[in-house]
Design a protein that fits this description.
- By secondary structure, this protein is an alpha+beta fold.
- It has two domains: 24-90, Arc Repressor Mutant, subunit A (Orthogonal Bundle); 98-268, GAF domain (Beta-Lactamase, 2-Layer Sandwich), CATH 3.30.450.
- Helices cover 47% and strands 18% of the residues.
- It has helices spanning 24-34, 45-52, 56-68, 85-97, 100-115, 157-164, 168-181, 184-204, 246-268, and strands at 72-75, 80-83, 118-125, 128-136, 150-152, 207-210, 217-225, 232-240.
- The strands form two sheets. Strands 5-4-3-8-7-6 form a six-stranded antiparallel β-sheet, sandwiched between helices.
- β7 (217-225) and β8 form a beta hairpin.
Length: 272
């Protein structure tokens, strides 16, 4: 799922660009940093322009500035850019300044071992979910995801859990953003999955992705809302189809994931 051309505002889901405090040039600069997918090292101006929807001259000027500040690194031989150490410093500061991962990790590991599945913690980033932690519980079926990986909103249990917890107005706005990113032929099915997950969350306290993201993977997801309701993280438990029947997710793994979420929320005081 995905549109190869990402508009410059696609990463700021729900942002009011007409607000007098909004700085468009700054937003465009960050859209360039965000267009580097996990595992990618070098991108050229043309690739960056295609991903952000920005004109190439604008991309050239912004990339030069970001490189001068240390947030990008330029390779003259390749005539392409890579992320710079300034981004690493920001990421390190974020992880050190947010203790939720350290608190969640041992609890996630216990659930991963019990379920023999992968348990993940993620934060929304535009129309993607970025993984903060991954605990693998099945040595014979390793999910090829690591902290820093991005996964889709509409088809994953993590993304659906985030969307399910949003107030209706914000949910409707985010749904439109996800639609813009989705291939038109797939949107009807993706939307039905998102709406169904929102209904499941209201009924059970968690939602599902039953082969929608990966036909071999079933998953259950639950949102975690901060005490001031300004942030929503998401947790999931996902594994191979033979181990993760809907009945097991509904009556065992789902309730345990809710209990895990509640424990993390209590231990952090809802501050994350």
């Amino acid at each position: 799922m995905g549109n190869p051309k990402r508009s410059a505002d696609a990463f700021g889901m729900g942002v009011d660009e007409e607000h007098p405090q909004f700085v468009t040039a700054l937003a465009r600069g960050f859209s360039i940093l965000r267009c580097f997918d996990y595992g990618e090292q070098f991108l050229g101006n043309q690739e960056i322009a295609a991903r952000t929807g920005l004109p190439k001259p604008t991309v050239s000027r912004l990339c030069y500035t970001l490189a001068a500040l240390g947030y990008l690194s330029y390779s003259p031989a390749m005539e392409k850019y890579a992320l710079g150490v300034g981004v690493l410093a920001l990421g390190h500061a974020f992880m050190k300044g947010n203790g939720v991962v350290d608190i969640a990790r041992p609890l996630m590991r216990d659930l991963a071992e019990y379920t023999q599945a992968a348990v993940m913690l993620a934060v929304p980033d535009g129309v993607r979910m970025v993984l903060l932690e991954v605990c693998q519980g099945d040595p014979t079926f390793q999910m090829k995801l690591e902290p820093g990986s991005r996964v889709q909103h509409g088809s994953t249990a993590l993304g659906r859990a985030h969307l399910a917890a949003l107030p209706q107005e914000q949910f409707d706005r985010c749904l439109r953003e996800v639609e813009l990113e989705c291939e038109p032929a797939l949107w009807k099915k993706i939307r039905a999955g998102i709406v169904g997950a929102r209904e499941d969350y209201q009924q059970y306290g968690f939602c599902f992705s039953l082969g929608d993201w990966n036909p071999d993977v079933f998953a259950v997801g639950v949102p975690m809302v901060s005490a001031d309701r300004s942030r929503i993280l998401a947790l999931n438990c996902s594994g191979r189809l033979s181990m993760m029947t809907r009945e097991k997710l509904l009556h065992d793994f789902g309730p345990r994931l809710v209990a895990l979420r509640n424990s993390i929320h209590d231990r952090t005081g809802g501050r994350f």
